[in-house]
Amino acid sequence: MDRPFFPEKIITTIPILLPYLGVTFGIMFGAIIVGLAIGFLLAKGSLSSHKWQNRVSGFIINALRCTPSIVMLFVIFYGLPILFWAIFRLDINSWGKGFYVITALGLLFSASAAENMRASYLAVPAGQREAALTSGLSEKQAFIRIILPQAFLVSLPNLGNSFIALLKEGSLAYTIGLIDIMGKGNLFISLNFGAYATETYIALAIIYWVLTILIEEIFKLVEKKFSKGRKEFSK
Q1: What confidence score (pLDDT) does residue 145 get?
Q2: Cβ-count burial of 46 within 10 angstroms (0-12 exposed, 13-18 middle, 19+ buried)?
Q3: Residue 120 burial by CB count (10 A; 0-12/13-18/19+): exposed, middle or buried?
Q4: Would you state the pLDDT for residue 230?
Q5: DSSP character at residue 19
Q6: Using 50, 70 and 90 to split pLDDT, how confident is the model at 229?
Q7: Long-range contacts of 197-205, Cβ-Cβ distance < 8 Å, separation of 24 or more
Q8: Which of 199, 209, 160 is nearest to 28 (CA)?
Q9: Which pLDDT score is estimated for 235?
Q10: Distance CA 80, CA 75 (A)
Q11: How many CA atoms are closer than 13 Å to the CA of 2, on its beta-carbon side?
């Protein structure tokens, strides 16, 4: 027998889910930090003049991009403890599940971050760097003061899309038992013996929808601010 649909249950379910947003954001920001760090190394390797670094970085980026999120999560969750024990004789089975989720999503995010960094760097005209070096700046100063601000501005649209994708991929955390808003939603449905499933998933969709719009608006504001500063600088 089909269960009746209660629209009002959507409104009452949202406050039950919201307290677990902290876990969702923790996963997202943790994966961003891991992904940007690894992505920077991969981007540096792909831009290197050494062919072996190009090939290794390219292979890693392609391998990560071709791996489904759920597969990466299970490989890390089940495989990393085996690897740590085999190499370091360290038992990490008791480590928090957030560690595995952040590691898995951080690796996946690093591939898109690396490609974004590489493309943004190449989008800055080479003459900018040469002019900066000619004016007396060191290589490091030229990168930080001249190249990085311009590359950052170019990267913003793709970076925003990557953040949104990462937010949604974080919903897979419940598959290994980590309770974020998605996990809480599934737990809520189970506690009600399958009742209010449609209402709960609609509530989850609304939350993710609002978060996606919020991220988009934040990136629009950042892009507008940096674009304004660039225009003023060019004058």
Answers
A1: 86
A2: buried
A3: buried
A4: 58
A5: G
A6: low
A7: 198/5, 199/5, 199/6, 199/7, 199/9, 199/10, 199/13, 200/9, 200/13, 200/17, 202/10, 203/10, 203/11, 203/13, 203/14, 203/17, 204/17
A8: 160
A9: 47
A10: 7
A11: 4
Contact between 81 and 91 under an 8 Å Cβ cutoff? The reply is yes
| Local structure of residue 5 (DSSP, 8 states) | P
Cα dihedral: 182, 94, 36, 20 (round 10)? 30
Count of Cβ atoms closer than 10 Å to residue 15 Cβ = 9
Rounded distance, CA 110 to CA 43, Å? Answer: 9
Q: What is the pLDDT of residue 87?
A: 94
Phi-psi category of 226—alpha, beta or left, where left has phi over 0 and alpha has psi -120 to 50?
Answer: alpha
Question: SS3 letters for 161-212?
Answer: HHHHHHHHHHHHHHHHCCCCHHHHHHHHHHHCCCCCHHHHHHHHHHHHHHHH
Q: How far apart are CA 19 and CA 30, in angstroms?
A: 18
Name the H helices within the chain.
Answer: 8-17, 21-46, 51-65, 69-88, 97-123, 126-134, 139-142, 148-169, 181-191, 197-234
**Integer Cα distance of 103 and 68 in angstroms:** 14
Summarised one tens digit per residue, pLDDT across range 88-112 is 999 999 999 999 999 999 999 999 9
| C-alpha torsion angle, residues 43, 152, 220, 42 (rounded to 10) | 10
Neighbours of 121 (CB within 10 A): 20
